[in-house]
Structure formats: C-alpha cells, structure tokens
Amino acid sequence: MTLFSIDAAAISLIFAGVTSGTLGSSGASARMYDELQFTFGEGPCLDSVASRNPVLVADLANANDVRWPAYSPAMLEHQIRGIFAIPVVLAGEYVGALDLFRTKPGELHADHLAGAIVAAELAGIPLLDLMDSDLQAAVNEPDSDAWAELNALSRTEVSQATGMLVAQLGVEPAEALVRLRAHAYATSRSATDVARDILDRRLRLDAD
Amino acid sequence: MTDTPRETRVLDAVVSLVDKLLDDFDVVDLLTELTERCADLLDIAAAGFLLADPLGQLRLLAATSTQTRELELFQLQADEGPCVECYATGEQVSVADLGTATSRWPGFVPAALELGVASVHAVPMRAAGIVLGSLGLFGTRPGELSEADLLVGQTLAHIACVALLQEHPPTPSTVIPQLRSALTHRVVVEQAKGFLRERLDISVDEAFSLLRRYARVHRDHLTDVARQLMTEPSSRPALLERMTELAHD
Questions:
Q1: ipTM of this predicted structure
Q2: Residues of chain B found within 8 Å of residue A166, distances taken between Cβ atoms
Q3: How far apart, in whole angstroms, are the C-alpha atoms of residue B25 and residue B145?
Q4: How many other C-beta atoms are found inside a 10 Å radius of the C-beta of residue A27?
Q5: Which of A53, A167, A172 sits opposite B177 (nearest CB)?
Q6: Interface-testing mutation among B24, B191, B199, with chain A (most A C-beta atoms within 10 A)
Q7: Residue B231 to residue A52, Cβ atoms within 8 A
Q8: Is A50 on the interface with B (CB under 8 A)?
C-alpha cells in the first residue's frame, strides 16, 4: 500500500442499507479499522455513501473537527490519524466505499486522491463479480481487462437496458446490471449487443 | 475605443472572466476586473458592485476606481438611489437624465449631480430566487443604455454572482469527484429512460421527454427524479402514476 502513502486500505459495502461489511482489505488491521465503523454505526464509508462524495479527514486528532464521537477516538487509539473514503458506484448506485487509513496526519495529495478515485472506480467490477459467483471463472481469465469492461458497461445502451431490466425483473439496478453482464458472458456476446436486444425487445431475461 | 466589433469584445470579456473562474481566483480582484470591463464595454464612467449585508444594507464590494469621488457615489446610496431601488425591486433601473429624477431620490440626485454624474443604471444580481445586490453603472453624459447594453451589464452581473457563490475555487480534489458525480447522474438518467420504456411502452426518446417535462412541472431536478425512480422502489408506483397522467395530458 505504498502507492498512496497509505498504511491500510479496505473496501466496504453498504448495499441497499441492509447488508454491510468489509469485502476486501490490505490486511487484518485494515479489516478491523473498517469493521469498527459498522460496530459504532458511524464512520467515513457510511458518510461518503450518504453524501455521495469523498470524505477526507486530514487529522482525526483535530479538536475542531470531531466528526465521529465514537469511531474517531477508537481509531486514534490504533494510531490512525488520516482517513479518506471514496465512494464506490455500481450501476449508478452508491454501494460502498474505498477506505484509506494513514498513521501520519496531513492532506491527501491531489495525485493520490485522483489515484484513489480510479481505484474506487475499478472496484465496481470485482463487486459485480461478488454479486454473481458464476462469473468468477470468466473474470479469472488472464485476458479479462477491468478497464475495458468498465468502459463497456458505462455505455448508454447498457444503462438504458439496465433500467428496462429493473422494470422487467423487479430487481435493483446493480443486480439488473449483473444479470445483463451474466447473459453477455453466457452467450459470448458483448454487453452492448445484449443491451440493444433488450432495448429493441428482441430479448427478455427471465425472472428468477 | 478600438475598432474591434463590440460583440467580439463582449465575448472576449466573458471568456476571460469565466477562464479565471475555472482556476484559482480572488473574488475581489475578479469583481474589480468585472467593473472595469463594464465601464469599457458600455462606455460609461464608473461601475460598481453593491452587495447586501445580512441586514439588507448595501455595501460596496468592488468598483472601477478607488478615487474618493467615485467611491462616494456608491456609498451615497445608504437609503436611496438606483442601486437601492434595483436591489429592493429586483428589476433593472435606468435613468437617462439624472436631472429629471430629483423627486425620485431627493437625497441622492443633488449629491450625484455635484459629483458630475448625468445618467445612472442598475442591474440586479440574483441567485437562488433572491436578490443579492446590484451592479451600478454611472455615466458623465446623459443617455440611454440600449437593450444590448443592459444585456451586457446583466451578463457580467451573472458572472459576478457565480464568482461570489463559488465559495472555494475549484481544485483537482473537488473537480474529479464532481465530474464523477456528473457521469453517475447520466447513468441513472439513462436507466430511468429504459425503465419508463418498459413500463409505459414508449420509446427511449419519449421517455426522456417525459422525464424532463415531469421535472419541469414539479420544479424538480431531472437527475433527482431519475434517481428517485431507480433507487426508491417504494415511491415508484406513485411516481409512475403521475408520469402516466402527464404523458396523457
């Protein structure tokens, strides 16, 4: 985690406000820092999803910025001073956050923030995989390219078809996108082609 | 005066000012430049921004000149005058010959005439449905400002409002999240089009028109309507019903 002069990082998911938890982390301590938010019911991930914006705290010890009455003191006890949370967005939904922890106080450098945002953007793809375990094999293929996939899934037709699937299947947008993507994999077609068929009513996906 | 057409000089001023807004800028410096551009483009002697303080009293924020004589012009308007009237009504004020307005502003007019002012104009600064203050324009010769002149003045006053309300100049830390947020808004709007296409059996284009119309009628933001439709299943039935009604109007 030397990339962002960061000491620990974790990705946590708050999906539909119901399920929540730490999905991935740089180590046991990162996982613990992250999970403490869910113990206390407050923290950077929750705030960044609620505000749909990054939450950047340069120094938790700053007495003028007491953000989390329970979470901040707990983190200070673990020698964490800086906390930065970048929301993770999936099919337009703010589903979680990439949380970065630092033992030294100070602002996150602009380049590092830009890097963290890219990382949060890319984190959407593994989240999609987690939501559909059948896809693990496909994703583990050596030629799978998260960037290319991100681009493909952000096409207009894919978003519109996702909306149609929400109406057809009675599921939330993120799950609708998972279904569209799974169909594309299963039929060896591009997400855009599948999306066009759905939009033109040549294809309907079955409800579970 | 140069031979460059005024349209070109106006556009040049707007581009240069907006360019500054997109970088690190100082608000007083920028507003001072705005008043200088005003004086130049409208061929008037003095221009200044008066901003209402929390008590509704107008205070001078920036002006073309720091000469006491001209500053006095703006500060004269504690209780009455073109800027005060413009601020109170939210409407443009234009007096081509100040000598005829003595009964309108009995305190301001004699003092302003003494300072060599012959014509006065004021355009409102507005944001969020409220009047923030006004831009005062003062000439040393009697004369009307044309519609085009007033439009130029109003444009520069709008830029001043944006500068004032943009509390912090943009930095990479604020720009990147905003761009990301804008792209996310678009994703949700596209989803909403697809959703309506399926539910109301209309084309994607018709769905977009309907969303925009609905947002306008309900004085709501397009992206907020789309987000509500896509992420709040509980409010969907009522929202769909109102949209169906609107589609059949």
A1: 0.76
A2: 191, 194-195, 230
A3: 31
A4: 13
A5: A53
A6: B191
A7: no
A8: no
- In this predicted structure, what is the pLDDT of residue A162? 96
Interface of A with B in 189-208 (CB under 8 A): 199
Residue numbers in chain A where pLDDT is lower than 50: 1-2, 17-19, 134-139, 142
Contact present, B38 and B137 (Cβ < 8 Å): yes
Q: Virtual CA dihedral for A46, A133, A163, B178, nearest 10 degrees?
A: 40
A-chain residues within 8 Å CB-CB of B177? 53-54, 117
pTM (global) more than 0.80: no
Residue B7 CB neighbours (<10 A): 10
Residues of B in contact with A167 (CB under 8 A): 194-195, 198-199
- What pLDDT is recorded for position A18? 42
- What is the Cβ-side half-sphere exposure of residue B246, based on CA atoms within 13 angstroms? 19
CA distance A86 to chain B (A): 9
The architecture of the domain spanning B6-165 is: 2-Layer Sandwich (3.30)
Cβ atoms of B177 and B29 within 8 Å: the answer is no
Tokens linked to A141:
């293929």
Share of chain A above pLDDT 70, in %: 86
| Entry field: residues in chain A | 208
Residue numbers in B near A110 (CB within 8 A): 171-173
**Under 8 Å between Cβ of B95 and B101:** yes
Domains of chain A: 2-122 (3.30.450.40), 135-199 (no CATH)
Return the sign of the alpha-carbon dihedral for residues B158, B159, B160, B161.
positive
